[in-house]
Recover the amino acids of this structure.
């Protein structure tokens, strides 16, 4: 009995001590108390506590909830934030609700069981104030922080970085001990520094400024900048701090500028890859065969429409449809190309101006055909899931997957074509015919057949370009027109009959365009590029990489 | 005495004109037709009462005037393409520039009758909150200055572009694509509001020209007559150039450029001259076009317009001058008809026309007529055959066969 009372006395005194301690270490009391209550009450009990009127009590319940290791907690908190958490007026059971036709569909909090529908009178929303909302968000972030997946933890930390306080500082310090993922650790350090930069201790401040100098977050930059600017006015801030802040600010700005440069470079590459895809087919028909094909843009359009049709045919499998569309577009556009060659162009070899006019006529016919069949409105081709979203390298640089894939894809097409022309039998025959038709003929090569297939190859690649373009823009009858002049510019700029020239030409024009854009605006940048090419052609009429030797004439 | 002198001069001019039209049967018929139009149209529109069957509504007068402007543009292209072998895919740009110069004059004439009532600034500038007239708008309130700009601006652009292109010997298809890029760049530029030419909407809502109300029938007929006069004079001027020694050199350049160069001619000078002159003609056509249709916008710069123009010339028969005019009239009439009756079919028809003309009618309608009638001497036939397939191209065909 005595022992018992002694132990209970001990318990009480410990509790008092804890409270006193907690008063000094501000964040501690809540945690401590919550831990206690978590031990004492089960999950269900805490949940029922939420159904109280007083916000203070609710806060206590939330604290308790934050220390329950249960996956249901996250769901409950989210529902609360979305105002979907109610309790029954009759027995104060907390429920999830969903509004269905004016009635409320109830689901049990504990096991998601359906509890039927009720009228609004029977239930009452668990209301929140801003303070509680903030608390819930913090708890949710904390839950994320203990997630086994590093990526989830990282996003949790990032969420917390938006608003740092003494509480988050404490939390970060605690987390830092257990964390082993580098990226998360870095983010945590940034978070600690964000709090510590407000410290009154100069050396802590200096360390924090140094850490923030490595960060690219806008909030970090704002804090450092504030210090650097404030330091300029206020006398009471240490000179060292000011200098450190200025230095860090410079560093942040420097790396932001660097990433902006990388981003622009990537956009340039992305535009260049589109140009490359559009021009690469042309560099075969125009460069190798010497045929001016003004319907090239429409062949691209046909490729894009093929993608659209294939998506209509397989609506349940958008992810695969794009893959299927690549060979399909190649075949469809290639067949159309062969038809054009057999039907019109073969009568006009050696008369480039007539070819230009005839193929322009064909382009008009194809445009109108598409308009009549698919309607003149733009069609939207869906982007498969694996191509959407973006790759966030850091908080200053994010690269969208569709553009990244198209850059890779264009290079794949380019090198595949290069290998095909150099290594395959057909490539050999093609080069033979273009270099010396008579000799090739006498060696037993069917030159007319090679002509048709070469043209088909160039057209097919235009179709493949259409598949890629359908992922970037809307598909409409005028899709091709937008690219025809650009593709000719690329081919002429790079040097006719030179695939490498086309590659260099496309990427350099794309990059130049994107670097001019912020300075001159999109339209003016395009005009400037056009004017530049016009002037460039005057000084080097054969392009960047002119063909030399016998092939030149 | 003085009277005698005048009549002498008149006679001299007359004989010169006769000289120009000698051995140009098609041209003579065409000019007679145009002059007849110049008499019939005003009479039928102004003098015949509206109830009469012979009455010609004003919209037809405007439509005919529009066709004749296009005919003048086609004539300009035929001069460079048919005779000099320069296939310009940017001639509509010169046309539009001339049109804009005229449009600017008409815009200034609106004065304070615009929607915003600003005596100095055109409506769109007030709308964009501009405070003062941009420097390049000065002088356009004077008719003579605007008319000067109608020829100077396209001429200067053609001169600079041609000087750069011909000097570095950019020829054939490359030149065509460059001219297309030129008009495309201008299209993009004129779409910008910052350019100060009304952006997307262009210049419109004109009130009067030289004090005459643009909506009145008499003004419209006068504009039509001015178009006829310009077309006839331009035709004679082109004919004069073609028949002159210079014209023969130009044709030689078309057929064998290197050979002419080796003979000691400065090929690029000839090309430059003819290109610039042609651009000026196109500018005049544009200037006549704008007051008749009442609007000029950046759409006129679209590459499609330039290339459509090529098919007019090709259909009519290039290298004949009058063929270009006939082609322009025929295609535009067809366009008016089709876009009204079967709008879906028009692009099919136009596209088909391109293919058919290049494959089956290399000499155009004129060539077809000549072949059908067979009334022409053997000598002439041989000549026209040579003209239809410029040697520079046939040489390439030869080369291709050889290689």
């Amino acid at each position: 009995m005595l022992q018992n009372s002694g132990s209970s006395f001990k318990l009480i005194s410990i509790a008092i001590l804890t409270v006193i301690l907690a008063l000094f270490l501000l964040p501690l009391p809540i945690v401590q108390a919550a831990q206690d209550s978590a031990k004492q009450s089960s999950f269900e009990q805490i949940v029922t506590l939420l159904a109280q009127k007083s916000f203070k009590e609710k806060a206590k319940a939330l604290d308790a909830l934050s220390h329950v290791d249960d996956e249901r907690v996250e769901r409950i908190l989210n529902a609360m934030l979305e105002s979907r958490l109610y309790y029954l007026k009759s027995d104060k059971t907390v429920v999830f609700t969903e509004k269905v036709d004016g009635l409320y569909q109830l689901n049990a909090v504990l096991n998601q069981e359906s509890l039927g529908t009720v009228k609004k009178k029977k239930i009452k929303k668990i209301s929140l104030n801003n303070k509680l909302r903030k608390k819930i968000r913090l708890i949710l972030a904390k839950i994320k922080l203990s997630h086994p997946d590093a990526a989830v933890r990282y996003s949790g930390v990032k969420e917390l970085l938006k608003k740092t306080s003494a509480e988050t500082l404490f939390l970060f310090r605690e987390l830092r001990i257990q964390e082993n993922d580098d990226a998360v650790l870095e983010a945590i350090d940034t978070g600690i520094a964000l709090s510590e930069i407000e410290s009154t201790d100069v050396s802590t401040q200096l360390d924090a400024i140094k850490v923030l100098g490595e960060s690219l977050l806008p909030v970090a930059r704002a804090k450092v900048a504030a210090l650097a600017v404030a330091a300029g006015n206020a006398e009471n801030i240490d000179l060292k701090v000011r200098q450190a802040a200025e230095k860090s600010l410079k560093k942040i700005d420097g790396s932001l500028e660097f990433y902006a440069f990388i981003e622009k470079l990537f956009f340039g590459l992305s535009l260049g890859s589109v140009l490359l895809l559009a021009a690469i087919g042309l560099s075969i028909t125009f460069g190798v065969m010497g045929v001016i094909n003004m319907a090239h843009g429409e062949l691209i359009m046909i490729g894009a429409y093929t993608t659209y049709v294939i998506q209509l045919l397989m609506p349940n499998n958008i992810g695969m449809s794009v893959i299927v569309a690549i060979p399909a577009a190649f075949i469809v556009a290639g067949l159309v190309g062969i038809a054009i060659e057999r039907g019109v162009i073969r009568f006009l070899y050696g008369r480039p101006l007539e070819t230009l006019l005839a193929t322009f006529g064909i382009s008009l016919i194809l445009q109108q055909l598409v308009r009549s069949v698919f309607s003149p409105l733009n069609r939207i081709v869906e982007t498969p899931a694996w191509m959407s979203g973006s790759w966030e390298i850091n908080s200053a640089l994010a690269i969208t997957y569709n553009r990244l894939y198209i850059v890779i894809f264009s290079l794949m097409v380019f090198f595949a074509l290069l290998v095909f022309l150099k290594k395959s039998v057909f490539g050999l025959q093609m080069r033979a015919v273009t270099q010396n038709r008579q000799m090739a003929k006498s060696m037993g090569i069917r030159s007319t057949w090679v002509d048709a297939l070469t043209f088909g190859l160039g057209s097919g690649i235009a179709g493949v370009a259409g598949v890629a373009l359908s992922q970037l823009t809307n598909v409409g009858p005028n899709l091709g027109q937008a690219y025809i002049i650009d593709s000719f510019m690329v081919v002429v700029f790079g040097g006719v009959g030179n695939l490498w020239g086309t590659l260099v030409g496309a990427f350099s024009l794309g990059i130049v365009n994107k670097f001019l854009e912020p300075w001159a605006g999109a339209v003016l940048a395009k005009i400037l590029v056009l004017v530049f090419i016009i002037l460039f052609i005057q000084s080097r009429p054969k392009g960047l990489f002119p063909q030399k030797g016998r092939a030149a004439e | 005495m003085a009277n005698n002198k005048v009549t002498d001069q008149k006679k001299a001019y007359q004989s010169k004109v006769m000289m120009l039209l000698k051995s140009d049967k098609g041209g003579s018929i065409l000019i007679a037709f145009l002059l007849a139009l110049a008499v019939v149209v005003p009479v039928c529109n102004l003098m015949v009462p509206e109830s009469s069957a012979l009455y010609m509504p004003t919209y037809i007068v405007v439509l005919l005037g529009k066709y004749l402007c296009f005919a003048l543009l086609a004539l300009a292209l035929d001069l460079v393409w048919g005779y000099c072998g320069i296939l310009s895919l940017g001639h509509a740009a010169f046309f539009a520039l001339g049109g804009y110069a005229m449009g600017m004059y008409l815009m200034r004439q609106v004065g304070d009758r615009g929607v915003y009532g600003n005596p100095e600034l055109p409506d769109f500038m007030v709308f964009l909150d501009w405070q003062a007239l941009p420097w390049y708008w000065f002088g356009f309130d004077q008719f003579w200055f605007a008319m000067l700009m109608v020829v100077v601006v396209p001429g200067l652009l053609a001169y600079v572009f041609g000087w750069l292109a011909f000097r570095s010997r950019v020829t054939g298809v490359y030149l065509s694509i460059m001219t297309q890029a030129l008009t495309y760049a201008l299209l993009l530029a004129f779409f910008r509001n910052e350019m100060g030419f009304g952006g997307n909407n262009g210049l419109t809502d004109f009130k009067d020209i030289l004090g005459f109300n643009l909506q009145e029938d008499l003004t419209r007929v006068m504009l039509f007559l001015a178009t006829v006069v310009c077309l006839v004079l331009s035709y004679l001027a082109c004919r004069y150039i073609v028949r002159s020694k210079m014209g023969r050199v130009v044709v030689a350049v078309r057929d064998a450029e290197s050979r002419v160069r080796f003979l000691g001619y400065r090929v690029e000078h000839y090309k430059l001259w003819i290109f610039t002159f042609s651009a000026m003609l196109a500018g005049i056509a544009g200037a006549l076009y704008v007051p008749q249709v009442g609007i000029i916008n950046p759409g006129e710069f679209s590459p499609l317009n330039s290339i459509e123009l090529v098919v007019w010339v090709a259909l009519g028969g290039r290298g004949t001058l009058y063929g270009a005019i006939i082609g322009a009239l025929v295609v535009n009439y067809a366009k008016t008809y089709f876009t009204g009756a079967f709008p879906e079919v028009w692009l099919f028809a136009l596209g088909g026309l391109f293919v058919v003309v290049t494959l089956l009618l290399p000499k155009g309608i004129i060539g077809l007529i000549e072949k059908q009638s067979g009334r022409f001497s053997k000598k002439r036939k041989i000549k026209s055959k040579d003209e239809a397939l410029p040697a520079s191209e046939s040489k390439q065909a030869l080369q291709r066969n050889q290689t």
